[in-house]
Amino acid sequence: GLSQYSSDPRTEWDLSAYSTRDQVLEAMRNLRYKGGNTFTGLALTHVLEQNLKPEAGARLEAEKLVILLTDGKSQDDANLAAQTLKNLGIEIFAIGVKNADEAELKQVASEPLELTVYNVLDFPLLSSLVGRLTRVLCTRIKEKSSKENADIPVNTGAHLSPTDLKISAVTSKSMHLTWSPPLRPPKKYRVVYYPSKGGIPKEVVLDGAVSSLQLSNLTSHTEYLVLVVPIYDTVVGDGLRGVTSTLPLSSPRSLRVSELSHNSMRLSWKAAQGATQYLVLCSAAPDGAED
User: Fold this and answer.
1) 117 and 94 Cβ atoms separated by less than 8 Å
2) What's this model's pTM, rounded to 2 decimal places?
3) Domain named VWFA: which ranges (predicted)?
């Protein structure tokens, strides 16, 4: 699968889109470069939310690997987003080109850094990494798969994944989440939430016995994406995803004008619930408009 990013990440194709090497190479040849900013944190969150889900071809039993290719320093918090992925058992390889920040690459990448961080001076030099990176990736997949397959039986997805996410009691700054726990209780839950149009992901870690959470201090009139992921000792279950919008702040109503004179007027209105101050703006109507 592949996504490009600037200030708005874009999925080029999902994990399930192609099934042969030739198809992938053809897709690469037809790829159009996306210029722009460098919001790496937003891109990593996009990959987690959009590309590493069952609908996009991700399988519960498969190892999850992300290869980040960047030529600049991130303009948002890439470390926080990367930590969210790594805490979910997703391994990150970071490849820098030209003006990439090596310190940031080392923060974002998984351990051991000598295997997961690469840096080259220009794009043509990326070809020199292909052989080594391929060997490292394949070796890591085999190592992790053999370790986890010894402990986890196959086809236990339904036993490891919560269901029925409900979002209720939505206000302008809060919402309540509830879900049905999986048959096998997790060690803990990781709840990640952020505005769908971009923003720093926030997360809450809960004990595996808990199946509800109140989210507070949200922004009004904003669509939020929510992800609830069960964490086990050696595996991560499928996460629940939800989308909902907080309510707009209440507005003043019934504006009335009275006590008119040649240079003054009195305004009155019904109060807006929760408002602590009002800003009143006044300007002369344009020529020809109604007085």
Assistant:
1) yes
2) 0.54
3) 1-133
